[in-house]
Design goal:
With 123 residues, this protein is an alpha+beta fold. It contains 3 helices and 5 strands. Helix content is 37%, strand content 22%.
Length: 123
Amino acid sequence: MIQCRFDQGDNYAHGMAPMTKSELIEFIAARAELSKARAEMVVNCVFDAMTEALRNGEGVEIRGFGSLKARAHKSYQGRNPRTGKSVNVPPKLRPFFKVGKELKELVNASRSSGSIKDNGDET
């Protein structure tokens, strides 16, 4: 069995710290028995493909994990916090992630079994 950060009982397994890109690369390299350079290329290719799809107005759906799409936000009148002057904020697209049913169930099951420590955040 491959030992990874999740198996070792450190902070991530308790919901304390997010996994970084370099840790994801290390995890994939170990799990798939790839070199770190090859795993980095895989991670970058996946992120590039997802970014390009969002740039083109397409969604990204990974069954059981979730979906990403670019949501349109209308322009609005904002305020410059330093001067208090009213400014027009232009319309923009922002990425939005919707968690998949299976991932949601896995996370909730791990929370109820105590394998993920509640860090006090309530949503």
